[in-house]
Design a protein that fits this description.
The chain is α/β, with parallel strands linked by helices. The chain has a domain of about 200 residues: Rossmann fold (3-Layer(aba) Sandwich), CATH 3.40.50.720. The protein contains 11 helices and 14 strands. The protein has a 7-stranded parallel sheet, with helices on both faces. Strands 8-10-12 form a 3-stranded mixed sheet. Strands 6-14 form a two-stranded parallel sheet. Helix 1 packs across helix 7, helix 4 packs parallel to helix 5 and helix 6 crosses helix 11. It is globular. The N and C termini lie far apart (about 50 Å). The model has no long low-confidence stretch (mean pLDDT about 95).
Length: about 300
Amino acid sequence: MKILVTGGAGYIGSILVPALLNRGFAVTVLDNFLYRQASLLDCCAHPSLTIIRGDCRDERLLTRLLSTHDCVIPLAAMVGAPLCDRDVVAARTINYDAIALLCKLASSSHMILFPVTNSGYGIGEPGKLCTEDSPLRPLTLYGETKVKAERVVLDRERSISFRLATVFGASPRMRLDLLVNDFVYRAVHDRAVVVFEGQFKRNYIHVRDVAKAFLHAIDQFETMKGRPYNVGLENANLSKIELCRTIQRLIPNFVFCEAPVGEDPDKRDYMVSNARILATGYRPDWSLEEGILELKKCYEILRANHYANV
């Protein structure tokens, strides 16, 4: 099978692409390398990898690539509410328009495996788990574009969408702005964090288990196609305060407090059921605690001191 991965040099792609290559797939990565990342250098020795520097919105390029590939994993996106709010045009054209274009150009035989965000659930009902049948009420432009794109993808018969929980864990293209990654960084380097609206809950998943979900879906495609799947840890529907307590157990000199005033611009608050994908035989490998310990080691290497004087 030949697989096209747009945004393949990003946070998830830098884990997924080597996993696909190790499974024997031929992989083409289409990426604009916006962040000047070198995260796939270790894969370049693999004869089944092709790298193309380009734009996922380029219709001529997409048409050419689709003609020689069987499966598409469109990871290219403006990820996160702050980034989308900073560049609304890019958010809409990359997160939605490029996906609509891909679905228009793809033939009925193409497999599409599409990641979205479970932040589309917005604010859930107290004490009730969000399932794939729960209403989608995105609170941000980011959530809105991903929900809209998912509808287009699932209108095709041969497609699967993954509603990803908040992803954590180390990647060659690291992101320090994800909640667990950020809090663990602060625990290691700052020893403290101030939490805003600490009772807001969300679900979590390790980046390697996200890659595992894609591999699982390729293997089980004919039985899984045509549906969305929540992808997260069943035992990790945690508030921000509960997350901090988990980190504190593993990094004891970490302290945290909840701010009595102020608010978090990210208002999502929900718990998620991952029963649908678990029923297909998928099982995550990484616990939240294992990911925290991994990140602790990671941050002995990484020090984001670009703006420090010393």
